[in-house]
Amino acid sequence: VIIGTRSGKVLALNKSGEPLPEWGYDTGRLVRQIAISPQAPNYVVISSEDRCIHVLDSTTGKPCWEKYRTGDWVRCVFVGDIDGDGRVEILGGSGDNYLYILDDHGNYLDKLYLGYQCFALFAAPLENGGPIHILTSSTEKELTVWTISRQGQQWKYKKAWEKSSDALLFE
Questions:
Q1: What is the pTM of this model?
Q2: Taken in order 158, 164, 167, 171, is the CA torsion positive or negative?
Q3: Helix, strand, or coil here: 170?
Q4: 10 Å Cβ neighbour count for 149?
C-alpha cells in the first residue's frame, strides 16, 4: 500500500500497515493523488501541491527522474498508453488549466489547454476496439471527454462532449 500525506510524505506500508523502513519520499507539499498502472507497475506517479508530477520507483521509493514542474498545483495524474504505441504516457491535470502529457521517462510531450482546472481524470476506450478517450472533471463540476491522437510528433485534440452539473444526467 502506498500513501501520500498532507505534509507531502509518500510512504509504502507492508501487509501489517507498518512503513517500509527504506521506502519513502517527500514532495514538500500536500500529495493530491497517487497513480499506479498495471501497464507500468514499476512507476508510482504522484500529483502534488508543489506544482510537480513526481514518478517514483515502486520497489525503492526513489525518484525515477527529475520531477516535472507545471504552472500550478497538480491535482490529478493518470498513467496509460494513450496513443497505442505500446508505451505509457503520464498525464497530469494542473491548476493552470492544462493537461500535461509526459512520456514514459518523464519528458514533456505536449499540453492540452482545457480552459478549466482539472480535478480528476481517467483514460479508456468508450467502446470495444475504439480509440482512447480522456475523461476530465473540472472544479466547476463539468465532465468533459476528449479524443487525443498522435501522428508522428504531432498531438491532436478534440473535445468529444461535455456535460455540466446542470444536466439532467446528474439528477
A1: 0.91
A2: positive
A3: helix
A4: 14
Residue 63 to residue 115: CA distance in whole angstroms: 31
Contacts 24+ apart (CB under 8 A), 81-86: 81/39, 81/132, 82/123, 82/132, 82/134, 82/148, 82/150, 83/132, 83/148, 83/149, 83/150, 84/132, 85/150
Cα separation, 124 vs 119, whole angstroms: 17
Phi, psi values for residue 170, rounded to 5°: -95, 10
Q: What is the mean pLDDT of residues 92-106?
A: 96
Specify the amino acid at residue 24: G
**Cα 43 from chain centroid (whole Å):** 12
* SS3 of residue 169 by DSSP: helix
Higher pLDDT, residue 49 or 142 = 49
- The model's pLDDT over 100-119, given as tens digits with 9 standing for 90+, comes to 999 999 999 999 999 999 99
- Cβ neighbours, 10 Å, residue 70: 22
